[in-house]
TrEMBL record:
<feature type="domain" description="Outer membrane protein beta-barrel">
    <location>
        <begin position="17"/>
        <end position="151"/>
    </location>
</feature>
<protein>
    <recommendedName>
        <fullName>Outer membrane protein beta-barrel domain-containing protein</fullName>
    </recommendedName>
</protein>
<keyword id="KW-0472">Membrane</keyword>
<dbReference type="Pfam" id="PF14905">
    <property type="entry name" value="OMP_b-brl_3"/>
</dbReference>
<dbReference type="InterPro" id="IPR036942">
    <property type="entry name" value="Beta-barrel_TonB_sf"/>
</dbReference>
<dbReference type="GO" id="GO:0009279">
    <property type="term" value="C:cell outer membrane"/>
</dbReference>
<keyword id="KW-0998">Cell outer membrane</keyword>
<dbReference type="InterPro" id="IPR041700">
    <property type="entry name" value="OMP_b-brl_3"/>
</dbReference>
Length: 153
């Protein structure tokens, strides 16, 4: 993925040195068959999320009379690394699946709301908030009870 981004150096308010970079964004998927009915899987994904046009546009957007959305042209892309470890066991008319998932983000894009003292107007401004992460565990059990009814939990 190649990204090039420049801000007009003559702009009266926003200053940026822009960015220009090339980075690999790999995807990896491995599955190991423990037996005919049991599998262990590992997934890895790296991606770069660019901001939306609205997120970098310097002109205020007035969707709501009391909330003004203002973009930030110096907003950097958000880079995400995702890891997923899964296990699946099949049996007659059903299965069990479990997964451990972790996602790490650098330069997390978020919206920060603030007000000006003495005003009721809220300004929503997009920012890079540094690092963030998300972790979850998932369990699924599925069983066919009768030909027309499946139980999932």
């Amino acid at each position: 993925m190649i990204m090039r981004y420049y801000v007009n150096p003559e702009h009266p308010i926003y200053k940026s040195d822009g960015y220009n970079y090339t980075q690999p964004f790999p995807n990896l998927r491995l599955t190991y068959k423990l037996s005919d009915n049991n599998r262990l899987s590992f997934f890895y994904n790296r991606r770069g999320d660019r901001s939306n046009k609205v997120d970098i546009r310097i002109f205020p957007k007035y969707d709501d009379a009391e909330i003004i959305k203002v973009g930030k042209p110096t907003l950097r892309p958000q880079f995400t690394n995702s890891f997923d470890l899964g296990y699946k066991s099949n049996w007659q008319d059903g299965y069990f699946f479990s997964s451990l998932y972790h996602k790490r983000m650098n330069a997390t894009i978020t919206r920060i709301s603030s007000t000006v003292r003495g005003s009721d107007i809220i300004y929503n401004i997009f920012q890079n908030a540094g690092k963030s992460c998300n972790t979850r565990i998932e369990f699924i059990v599925s069983q066919k009870v009768v030909p027309w009814l499946y139980f999932k939990s």
